[in-house]
Amino acid sequence: MMPxxxxxxxxxxxxxxxxxxxxxxRYISKEESGxxxxxLLVGGKNASPFFKSKSAMEIFEEAGVPRKQKVTTFNVTDDxxxxxxxxxxxAHFRPGQFVDVTAKTIGKGFQGVMKRWGFKGQxxxxxxxxxxxxxxxxxxxxxxxxxxxxxMPGKMGNIYRTSLGLKVWRINTKHNIIYVNGSVPGHTNCxxxxxxxxxxxxxxCNKNPPFPTFFADGDENLPEDLYDDExxxxxxxxxxxx
Amino acid sequence: xxxxxxxxxxKFQPPPKPVIIDRQKQRxxxxxxxxxxxxxxxxxxxxxxxxERKDMIQxxxxxxxxxxxxxxxxxxxxxxxxxxxxxxxxxGICIQRGGKGLGATFILRNVIEDQGVEICYELYNxxxxxxxxxxxxxxxxxxxxxxxxxxxxxxxxxxxxxxxFRLDHEEVPVNxxxxxxxxxxxxxxxxxxxxxxxxxxxELPEKKMKEAQKWNKPWLEFDMMREYDTSxxxxxxxxxxxEELKK
Lengths: 242, 247
Description:
heterodimer; A: mainly beta; 2 domains; 7-stranded antiparallel sheet; 4-stranded antiparallel sheet; B: alpha+beta; SH3 type barrels; 5-stranded antiparallel sheet; 4 helices; 19% helix; Large ribosomal subunit protein uL3m (chain A); Ribosomal_uL3_bac/org-type (chain A); ribonucleoprotein (chain A)
């Protein structure tokens, strides 16, 4: 995570996400998947092909791509279908867009009720016998049962969570890095899924994004760094309030 | 003269070789790599530090950040929308330098009208207009937080101080000042060996000093897991940074 300053002098914290060897693996049509839209399977980060069975490697061999560590699906409209085997780059996103980031949270193991659900526990002294971090009562008398989903101790973390509505401040096309506002679930160097935001306030935020995606062999040569309009770039002189 | 005392033809004595002290080389040899360039120990990708360093060097090309250590007296002018003339000047002694990369900070302390003031500035904040080093002097410690519990005369510096003129560009002088403290209680127990402070004149009784040594952990010095040898990393980063800045 890094600090970033706007032209008005405000500081924001920014997470760096690297797009590492992403390829489109397969196209699944609407009828085949049985959903509302067609799907595209996308794989990230190369991994060794030796520890998987042949059936698992079939998808990668079809697309002509080395084995990927993680495979996710994206629901895609019919006009945004991409041929399997095309690489995906960070320039698919542009500064000023809003993005949702999904990842597996840091696993905390088996945790008690105070850390997992934020219960208040009991006082440390004034006669409490062996009860300082316990949940207390778990149901009422009339119910005569414990409801499903009752908050109790258990394994915490290591589940998928999404941070919604994060602004993209800057894109580095040379190293394929996306600078995303705020924090992102997961530990450092974990695999993360980045999608266009589903929030209704950001529905019309994308002004002419590269559609269906940014193709590297095209004619447009992008500069190494793409900045948002409000970012203070370090080549400019210091900020003054005139 | 040609004839020696023996009468034989005198051997040619070459003149003594002059000893050349190359001042330029000595000046170049002294390198200072700002501590925020050194990446902390961790599992982060080195690519992230490389990109951060590029940004830091970019900023240094536009705005000069002078070499300074803890104990120097600095004057910092920041842009402030709510001040007269939109600029704010603060003079103070640097107590602490923290943070790595773009978020590196330093704290300046001064006592203004009997009120101690500490301001934490970010080195790479674009609102900073100028950093001037008024007086160069290193102190015995890396962290001068104990000035909060010292007598206020040790933290007062004149706001309109003129920069002290320095001739040599070699060796920052070390001020071996021993600071006198206010009566206890202090904000931290500075006499304990954990803080390893050499710049205080402790006027505590012997018994208290001995009791403080109970918290001594002499084995930490030999702990190999805590070693972080930065010499090679520093070399590489120094080369990179100096090459970029010369361009």
